Structures are given as C-alpha cells and as structure tokens.
Amino acid sequence: MTTADARTPASKQNDGTPDGAIPDDGAGKSIGWHKGYVQGSRPDLRVPVRQVHLTNGKDVTLYDTSGPYTDPAIDTDVRRGLAPLRENWIIARGDTEEYAGRPVRPEDDGVKHTSPRGGLRNLDAVFPGRPRQPRRSRDGRPVTQLAYARRGEITPEMEYVAIRENVEAEVVREEIAAGRAVLPANVNHPEIEPMIIGKRFLVKVNANIGNSAVTSSIEEEVDKMTWATQWGADTVMDLSTGRNIHTTREWVLRNSPVPIGTVPLYQALEKVDGRAEELTWEIYKDTVIEQAEQGVDYMTVHAGVRLPYVPLTARRKTGIVSRGGSIMAAWCLAHHKESFLYEHFEELCEILATYDVTYSLGDGLRPGSIADANDEAQFAELRTLGELNTIAKRFGVQTMIEGPGHVPMHKIKENIDLQQEICEEAPFYTLGPLTTDVAPAYDHITSGIGAAMIAWWGTAMLCYVTPKEHLGLPNRDDVKTGVITYKIAAHAADLAKGHPGAQEWDDALSDARFEFRWEDQFNLALDPDTAREFHDETLPAEPAKTAHFCSMCGPKFCSMKISQDIRRQHGGSQEEIEEGMAEKSKEFAAAGNRVYLPIAD
Amino acid sequence: MTTADARTPASKQNDGTPDGAIPDDGAGKSIGWHKGYVQGSRPDLRVPVRQVHLTNGKDVTLYDTSGPYTDPAIDTDVRRGLAPLRENWIIARGDTEEYAGRPVRPEDDGVKHTSPRGGLRNLDAVFPGRPRQPRRSRDGRPVTQLAYARRGEITPEMEYVAIRENVEAEVVREEIAAGRAVLPANVNHPEIEPMIIGKRFLVKVNANIGNSAVTSSIEEEVDKMTWATQWGADTVMDLSTGRNIHTTREWVLRNSPVPIGTVPLYQALEKVDGRAEELTWEIYKDTVIEQAEQGVDYMTVHAGVRLPYVPLTARRKTGIVSRGGSIMAAWCLAHHKESFLYEHFEELCEILATYDVTYSLGDGLRPGSIADANDEAQFAELRTLGELNTIAKRFGVQTMIEGPGHVPMHKIKENIDLQQEICEEAPFYTLGPLTTDVAPAYDHITSGIGAAMIAWWGTAMLCYVTPKEHLGLPNRDDVKTGVITYKIAAHAADLAKGHPGAQEWDDALSDARFEFRWEDQFNLALDPDTAREFHDETLPAEPAKTAHFCSMCGPKFCSMKISQDIRRQHGGSQEEIEEGMAEKSKEFAAAGNRVYLPIAD
C-alpha cells in the first residue's frame, strides 16, 4: 500500500530509469495517512505502522513494509544507504566479530579479464556508503534467531515482530524455536526492519527483481525494490543473472528495509560462463560466502535435486522448469555424480549458521504444467527436502521450504499437507500455484487463485507472479500488479484463517463504503491511487466524493442509499432504528412468521 | 478468446463509440485459427468451434462463444441483426403462435410526455431489421425446454449443447428434466446459439452491460455485448437503467448469439420515475411481458426479499447491497406489505412458461461485505428461494438461483452446499464471491479467487466482476479484463472438477511452451494478443518466435532448454531417451536407491 507521500521518496531514486517517471499520484490527494511508530521496550525499538486517518475522526492502523522512505522525517539517499537499525542489537549479543572478509573479485561482477578497471576492489568501490567490514560468528557457533529462541532468549528482533504481528513475544520465540517460523536477518544486513514468516502469523509476500539477459541498470533494480516494498512486499529476491551482479546486490542490500533473498547458484554459473558442468562445490561455496558477507538474508538452495530423481522427469510434459533445478540436473548427468549441494549440505549449514542466513530449500523439480502436478519427481524431492530440513535444524539454521508451481485446485491441499508433515511444519513458501496453463499474460491471476487457497491452508509466504510470467521481464507496472494481486491473496487468507485483527481492515473500508465516505474508501484501499482514479473517471467532480451514490447506479438505484433511507425514514437515530428493526424481527420470529408489524408503527 | 480475425467484425460496429477505435491487434498475426462447425443430425444444426492450427500440424478444438461475427463467410450487420437460427425448430414444435403483442409505449424508453417523436410505435421503428411479431405458447401450456425434457424429448437445442459440451444428448435431457441444468432460450430470441448451465457441464461466465446514470449509446452497448462474447462470455445481462432502455435491449437481443438476461424491476422503476413505493404488480407484470416479447432469455426476480427479512438487515455492516433487493425492501416497508413479487409468484410462473423465460431467482439480501457473509438475512432469503424454485418447477419454468456476494474463503463452501440442498441442485449462479473488501479497483481479482473455488464446488455460472466494481461504469477494457479473469476462474474449476477434455487445452499449451513453439502458445492463449504483445516487449525480433529461450532467463538460464538438452545429449530420439531414463529410474528404485547407473552408459 502507498500514497502520494509514500512514493515521493522513491521518485528521488527514479531519475533516468527506463520506466520513466513515476506515474503522477496527484500529490496532496492522499493525505489521509501518516507513518507512525509503536514504541518497544527500548528507545531504539520503534515499529513502523501506517496510520490511516478517517474523516469520522477514527484511526486505522495497518502493517507497513515501506521502510524509512515513507517517513518524511528521515532523509534517505540511495548512495548512502539506510541506517543500520539492528547494528547495536547484533553487537550487544557479543557473539559476532568483524573481519577482513573475502576480497571482491572482477568475476563477482561477471568481468572475466583483469582490466585496469577490474582487479581487486574493496566494498567502498562497490558501494559509496559508509565503509563496513563483514561480520560473522566469533567462534563458529550459530548466531541465528533459531539458536537464540531455543536458548529461551527473546531478541529485540523477536520483540519487534511481536509488536508488528500484535502477538506476545513468547509466541514468536516458541514458533521460531519449534522451526515453524523463520526470522530472516543476516548479521550483515542490519538495515532491515525485522519480519517473521510462519503460519501463525500474517501471510507474507515476496517480490522478485533482478537484471537479466536484458540489461537493466543498478538504479533500476534498487528502485524496483523500494517500489515493491512500498506496495507491500515483505521480502525481495534479487535474481540478477547478468553483469554487475555483485554490485547490484550490494546497492539493493544497503537500501533495503526488508530481508533480501538470492539463488547463489545463478551467480556461481556466471562465474563458469554458464557451463553447468564446470560448476564445483568450491566455486559455489565461495559465492555463498561472498553473498553472506554482503548480507543476503535467505538463500534458495536446490540441494533436493538428486541424481536419481532426474530420470523421474523424463516423461513429464514440461520437464524441469526451475532454473536452479535444471542447472543441478545438468551437472548431475554430466558428471554422473550425486549433487554437490546434497553431498556438502552439512558444510553449507555450518557456513549459513555463522551469518544467520536462512535456508529456502528450493523445489527444483516443481511441476511446470497442470499435467505434471503432484508427480513422483516432485514428491521425491519434497521427501529429500524433509531430510535436509532436519539436518539444517541440527546446525541451528533457520529453514523454509519452497513449493510449486503449476497445480490444479483439487491437487493444491495435498501439497501443503504433505509439506507440513514431511518438513515438521517448517514454513512453506510457494510460487502461486498457477491453477491453469492457458492464460499467459494473466498468470498473476491464475496463480493468485492458487496462492490464496494454499495460504489459507497454511502456506506462510507467497512468491508473487507478474503478468509477464512465461513471456518476459516484469517492468515497474508489472511489479506493482504482482504485489497488489498477492497482497489480496495473502489478506484473503488472513481472513480465512481468522488472523486476529485481519477483518478490522475490511470492516473499516466497508463502513466507509456504506456511509459514502469516499476519501476514506480510497485511503483504506490496497491501492488508493487507482481506486480514486477509477472513481473520478466517471464522476470527477469534488462533490461526488461526498455524494450518496456513485456512477454505477446513480442516485435512484443506489442500493446503499435506499438501504440507509429505509432506516432513516422511520425517524430516530440509526441506533434506534436498528434497535426497533431488531425488536420487530424478534417479535416476528416469536409469532412464527405469521404476522409482522412494521417498524415504528 | 479471440484473434485479430475475430475482432474485425466488431470494429464495424465500433464506429463512433466513446471507447474509440479497437486496440490494434496487428491483423494477420493471429492467423493460427479458424471458425469451424460440427455438423449435427440435421442440416441446420451446426455447432461452432474454434479450430486452432498448431505449427506441428495438429489441431486443437476449443469452445466458441463469439457467434457469426467471427465467421468470415457470414456478413453481419447490426442494423439487420443475426439470422434466426432456431426459428424453424421453434415453429416445427407447433406449440407456439405469433400474435400482435403489447404495443411499445414511449414510457418503455423512459420518455414520459407524448412528443411527436413519442407516441405509439411498432418494433420496426425500434429496430430496423426484419419485421417480427412476438411469439408465445399457443394454449398457455409451458413451451419450455424443461417441459420437453420431462416429456423425454431431445430438442435440437439439447442436441446442440450436447455437441458443444461433448456429452450424450440424453445426459443433457436428464439434467434439464431434473432441474439440475437450464437451457435459457426464449421463443422470441431465435438468434441464439444454444448453451447450457449446470454443474455437470462446463462452468459458464456472464458479463453485465447496460447504460446508466452516465449515458452511453445504443451502439456502444451492442458493441460491448459482441466484445464480451468474443472474449468468451456465455451469457450477457443488459442492466440498462437510463433512457432508450427498450430500444437498447431490442438492438442487443437482435444481435446477440448468447442468451440475454435482465432485471425487469429496473425498467419498472424507471416507469414510476424511480419512486419504489409507486411500483405495482401491474406495472411489473406489464414490463415482464414487454421484455419476454422482445426475447429476454432469463430474468432476475427478487421474489425472495420478503417483508419479514428486511429487519434482519438492520444490524448489517452494509445493509442491502442488491439494487433489486433494496428496491423491494423499500416497497415492502413503505406499504407495510409482503412483496408483490412473492405474492404473485405463481402468476409470474405462468407468464414465463409461455415464452420459455428462465428464472434467475435473485439474492436481494446477499452480503455486501465480509462482515455480513452467511448471516441470517442471507440464508432466510435462500430458504425462500428454495420454496420458489419448487413452485417454478411445478409450472415447468426453468430456474437458476443467484448467490453472493462478499464471502471470505472459509465461508464459501457453506454457500454452495446449502444452496444445492435447499434448491434441489438447481444451478447456482454467483457474483464472485469477493474474498476481501480491501481492494477496490482490483475486485475482478478479489472475486476471481472466490469464483474459481465456488465453481469447483458446483456453481454452474459465474457473473463477472470488473475492476470498476464499487467505483464506476466498466468501459470496453474493463469488460475484457472481467471476462478474461472469469474465463480463468471457470476453466480452473473445469480442471478441478475433472471435466472431460478440459485439460487438453492446458496440455496443448504446455507442450507448445516446452517445445518453444511461441506462435502456438500465443494462439492457444486465452488472450493471444496480449500474450504476444508482452513477449514482443522484450524480444520483438521474429527469430525470437522460434528461439529456444525467452527474455526472462536468456539462453544460459532457460530451464526448459537445459531440460531438453539433458534429454538430447545422450543421443537418440526423445522417445528413446525417455525410455532409457524411465528404465534407469526403475532400476534405481529396484536397487533400493543405493546405486545409480546414468543413462546411455
């Protein structure tokens, strides 16, 4: 969600992006809200909220993912990066140390030869903001929120999300300790506003960004990230695969108020010029450390794509559709060897534990078509992800499990039920699922349907799908459409799960609708600008904003107006009318529906 | 679905509509299909299909709702209207007669005073096409498809839909006879291509059109109708409430290849200048006959809004949100009387039976917000609709039941289950339902989620919701977006219900996707034009149409390409590879997952 105010800072960063200027949001129109903070137990623990002011004097408080960019009191600058909110919390724990870190090499940005501009560089050259050294566990023991939770510690991060989710901090600690929730927070990403992913909490939404075969500028990716979080993205995955992959990620991380996820395999493949068979554990491990030192909060690891499973995809209609999955399958077959990710998984756990990088165990064999849904290959991999989940927990690494894909509605529930059983209720993180294959250009909708259902049944985070899925690279508008569609799916699921307080938002908007408080409707809407724009298309005049009807039916046909008149025409306050009508309805029922004496007679 | 060819005829009708010219669909690009016909048991029974020609030489046959407009061999002209396809079938039954019919009055078009241009007119003046007299039952006995089905007759209409749905004609007859399906086909609307609405058949989609407080031209409404059917609308409701309401409807009917539904109460209210309390049974009855003579195929009747139920809405968050419902509630309270629709229901049945107008029993007390879902008022009305359904059946009138509305996901199933039980499995026809209130401007999506779910569970037809819901009048683009969204929901439900043949469409598109047959993907897509446009945004060049990758991942990262290479790099035909891989996977399983010998070694 956002407003004119909300997007103004983003426009600072938008200069010269191919997408052009940010759509005019008629500054001054959306003045119906401000950024607020809920004070925690310590001065530096302030949880941001979106305070919507209604014309009836009431306030509605909504979850806010937009970061400091929407706080007019904070002067943000993408070249400086965000303030390291969590730094003192991390230092205070005393279990981490700064160290020189791995030198950044030209290959990290996809530059093969050592040009004058190439050669060794330090992070200052990569990012102009405050100089920083990477941080890691002082003694190799896990510095993860999972480890703290098991020890019974309620970290500031846990208190932060407890306030955000409106639950007891102890509930947060328990869910993390039990592995039913993750709080992705790399010690090298102190800029984030902590959030939690688990079925007992609000359903979260991830937005993917990243440059690709088609080049896009670093500024553009940073802008896409802030744009996505302003519309409600809870995490962002940087799936860049082209040039400047390291530098792009650094800029995104330093400016991101939400956890950042990646797929290290993509960068590793770049380092071997896209020749899957040339991948090695060493190159992959080095890439993971490179990204962990930068501050990546969670990493997709396709360690479940085992050699024996590859043949199971032979009869599939669409084979292997996961990039990571197909790369690992190619490697396995080329070498006739078991996956190096599977074989080195414990070593990988040790690395992730020392930075608190959260696992997102990838579903490399997810179905890419309705025909392939819930097949042997998919569930064989899921069982392996179950094994790996258990191992990761042993090493104190937070873990979530990725899910499909293309799945028809009647096969969706089996996915979440099986995952919850096999993976001991670890958070499920699904892409859609898409409920049909026939609507390219509308896959945000084919998948939004499946996403809402699987989230209702227990999926903790939804990876968005944009209208460009299967066709091309999402632009700014696609990112917005994808995020809004998935916020709808997530909130619909929160309602269906009966999440405490979820319905207050719907109730506030419906009250405004029934009472013709148009400005309040707009300000409470998931997308205030488009709602206002659609209304004004047919009734632009200001008076229409208070009119007791809209252009759909006109005054004569407005059911809500008639409905209100029915109540009013019998005199007295609405409360009295309601009393009276309710009384009458009781009388009527008592009289066995035989006789009815109308109101106010 | 449509293509460039498909829309060309519509553009004829588009001249001078405010929406302006039809978006360029790059004529010649979408040449991958043609209009075909399946020959029935008689020469004049030819069922239209959309034949998609794939580049691999195969053909895919899809359901087609676009009417003669997409047949280049037929020269359509909106001033002449469509050919009366069913006329001979109706005449041949010998149970109907032509008659003078009710004179068309100025008030029918909302013209109060008798101007020179006003006064009595005949249909010729209303519509320039072939002169016609209305038709009705010769002896007052029902001339409905229900009556014929009960008699064991398989009408040409039933054979037509049987071919369309790819089922036995006897199945169609049985479902209609049992009241589990309706075949809306007024004897005065011979132009339609018969279709069926019932849970054992493909899920259908209705699109609403109609001018309103905001004036829109007659041509524009006719164009919206053809536009909607070209994208896949199975029926269209004309909800006009403004001027020229009679004439607009006549033009729509004479040019519509799909059944047309209306809410007669809207026109009746116009005749009393919008003063609900001045409505009378006589005015309403006269309006119903007026519309039945024109050929309206189904009518929404809010006879379930009984006086005693109105107080049940008093404590609601959004009261009564159905226009018809609020009008009847206002009337009931103003007169302190039971609804004249409820009290005259049997007389109304007699009228509808003599034209074969199908009932769509309106849910005037549907919930207008999440808070009001599944409440006492809603279900009290539903029980009354059950009573009325039984009465309608006794009079041989085909009947479907309308459903909500705003309903959170966890309360949706109760709606369809209760309706099926109370209404003896009469077809359920729902608006969405919308699964959250917080996304005005995106209610096609909030409702598309609920629509897909309730259709999976047995709803027979879905009434679309456009992005303008709650905000304004849908324009041409909104109509398209609404129809496409609902075709997605309907098809997703057909898949989940395991409707025979439904998945062939998905399979054909997924095969094309995996084999990089981009043109086939576009031509099989629900919206070929937008799919092609999105693809070309990032890779416009023609070669990209055969490229073994797309702009999303580029050649190095295309999982499908890698997936195919995996199969090929071991030599032999794809079939052989699959054989080999499958063999190995068996061996592997047999070996207890201990050892794995790679393919082709």
UniProtKB/TrEMBL annotation, chains A, B:
**What gene, per UniProt, encodes this protein?**
thiC
Question: Where is the sequence biased in composition, kind Basic and acidic residues?
Answer: 100-112
Q: In the record, what terms sit under GO molecular function?
A: 4 iron, 4 sulfur cluster binding; phosphomethylpyrimidine synthase activity; zinc ion binding
Tell me the GO BP annotations in alphabetical order. thiamine biosynthetic process; thiamine diphosphate biosynthetic process
Q: Where is this region: Disordered?
A: 1-44, 100-142
Q: How is the cofactor bound?
A: Binds 1 [4Fe-4S] cluster per subunit. The cluster is coordinated with 3 cysteines and an exchangeable S-adenosyl-L-methionine.
Q: State one Pfam family annotation.
A: ThiC_Rad_SAM
Organism of origin is Kitasatospora albolonga
Provide the binding site for substrate: 208, 237, 266, 302, 322-324, 363-366, 402, 429
Regions of biased composition (Polar residues) lie at: 1-16
Q: Which UniProt keywords apply?
A: 4Fe-4S, Iron, Iron-sulfur, Lyase, Metal-binding, S-adenosyl-L-methionine, Thiamine biosynthesis, Zinc
Q: Which family does it belong to?
A: Belongs to the ThiC family.
This chain's protein is named Phosphomethylpyrimidine synthase
Q: Which residues form a coiled coil?
A: none
Residues binding Zn(2+) are 406, 470
Write the Enzyme Commission number(s) for this entry: 4.1.99.17
Query: What cofactor is needed?
Result: [4Fe-4S] cluster
Q: What does the entry list as the binding residues for [4Fe-4S] cluster?
A: 550, 553, 558
Biological role stated in the UniProt entry = Catalyzes the synthesis of the hydroxymethylpyrimidine phosphate (HMP-P) moiety of thiamine from aminoimidazole ribotide (AIR) in a radical S-adenosyl-L-methionine (SAM)-dependent reaction.
Q: In which pathway does it act?
A: Cofactor biosynthesis; thiamine diphosphate biosynthesis
Q: Which residues form the ThiC-associated domain?
A: 34-97
Sorted alphabetically, which InterPro entries does this protein's record hold?
ThiC (IPR037509), ThiC-associated_dom (IPR025747), ThiC/Bza_core_dom (IPR038521), ThiC/BzaA/B (IPR002817)
* Reactions listed under catalytic activity: 5-amino-1-(5-phospho-beta-D-ribosyl)imidazole + S-adenosyl-L-methionine = 4-amino-2-methyl-5-(phosphooxymethyl)pyrimidine + CO + 5'-deoxyadenosine + formate + L-methionine + 3 H(+)
Cite the PANTHER family for this sequence.
Answer: PHOSPHOMETHYLPYRIMIDINE SYNTHASE, CHLOROPLASTIC, THIAMINE BIOSYNTHESIS PROTEIN THIC
Residue stretches spanning the membrane: none
